[in-house]
Amino acid sequence: MATVVSDAPLAHARDGRFGVAWLWRGRVIKRLGGGMFGLVLAVAGCGAIAPLTARGESSESKQLTELQQKLDQSLKLIEALTQRVKQLEAAQSASAPAAAGAAAPTDAQRIETVENRVMQIEATNAGRSGDTTGVPLHGFADIGIGNHTANEQQFQGANVGALDIFLNPQLGQHTRSLFELTFEVNEQGQVQSDLERAQIGYQFNDQATLWVGRFHTPFGYYNTAYHHGQQIAISLRRPRLILFEDQGGVMPSHTVGAWFTGSEHLTDGKVTYDLFAGNGQSISGGEIDPRSGGVDHGGAIYGGNLGYVFGETLNGLKIGVSAFRSKITDDQQFVNFIRVDNVAVYFNYDTDRFEYVGEYYRFSDTDLTPVGPLHRSSAGFLQLAWRLPFATTPYARYERAVLDQSDEYFALQNNGMSYYRAALGLRFDLDLKSALKFEVARTKNTDRNIQEWNDVLLNYAIRF
Amino acid sequence: MQPKFSVWFGLLVLLVVRSAAAADVLYVVCHEGVSLDAAEVRYVYLGEKQFANTIRLLPVDNVAAQVAFLERVLKVDATRYSGIWTKKWFRDGINPPPVKAGNAEALAYVKQTQGGCSYIGVDPGPGVTVIARY
Question: Smallest Cβ distance to B90: which of A177, A232, A270?
Answer without folding.
Answer: A232
